[in-house]
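Reviewer 2 asked us to include a model.

Predict the structure of this chain.
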Amino acid sequence: MIIGIDGNEANVKKRVGVGQYAYNTLLELHKLNTKDQFYIYLKKNPHRDMPQANKNWQYIVIGPKILWTKIALPFKLFTQKIKLDLFFSLAHYSPMFSPVPTIPTIHDLGYLAYSKQFNKKDLYQLTQWTKKSIKKATRIVSVSQFTKNEILKTYNYPKNKIFVAYNGVGTSLNIPSRIALKILEKFKIEKPYFLYLGTLKPNKNIPFIIKAMPKFPNFKLVIAGKKGWLYDDIFKLVADLKLENRVIFTDFINESEKWALYQHATALTIPSLYEGFGIPAIEAQICNLPVIASSIPVYKEILGESAILINPKNKEELVAALKNVQQEPLRSKLIKAGQKNAAKFTWTNTAKSILKCFYDTKNN
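Predicted model (structure tokens):
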């Protein structure tokens, strides 16, 4: 089989969310599959840490970068000598026109549920381009059963043509204590602290965590992640509550910093209002860090009873969870359940599920 892939989401320096999924999926496909031919299409030359090119894995760099999926990529697919069997996109947008079957990855439909959290330009693009990608897709990869259900409900797409490929989590980096302490010192973090990890944007419900902090005067709150959009209220709330010395913003963190923060936190708190998956929850569990998450459908699906699930609009439930997570035997129970749960989510399993989708496309 000859497979084309849009690899641009993976080909960035600072990978979060979709970027993590894209990069790790490519690594596993590169490692697992040596019988098929892969062509990875990019806007710019591959970064050094991208999978190495070989006889089964080739990069094709094309321009212009503007309107890439609408013009540059379709033009290349129609004019090249390479005859692909299918084209896979690691994000929502497939090439606008394609001579071969297309398979997009749908991560979530949060922009429909919370449209007011997006500016008009981004909302239009997400809504219209995703709709077009789904409409002409031969198959779809979804990152959770919840997202699959959302696709079925919203777009009435054939159920048997949506393949669930859960996000994975790689092996955690065991950061030596002396290095981890230097990382904490770099960000002026003192233990004990609660941790939030993710992009700063409205659906993450970060103000909800901040409002609970006055109940825990001995704790810091570390908010680790880059700025997304509509985040000004987060910083204003910290100032209004006079918590500048107890709420620490790290901005984007690298891999070593991420694992160090997991390893020394008291709990990960992720009270999102909407998610398509939620990689930090599983990453925390492989680090033996208890998780407090919102009781939204996708967290019920991927975490079940391995985490404390709370109403993301009820501050009393969050305060109780932050107190209870410190106590035995609950803490040990959560750590043990978390280890067992996290073992199910590997990038190898992700890649295998995607390959099943490819072969189904080819054979049917």
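The longest helix spans residues 120-136. The mean pLDDT is 95. We have added this to the supplementary material.
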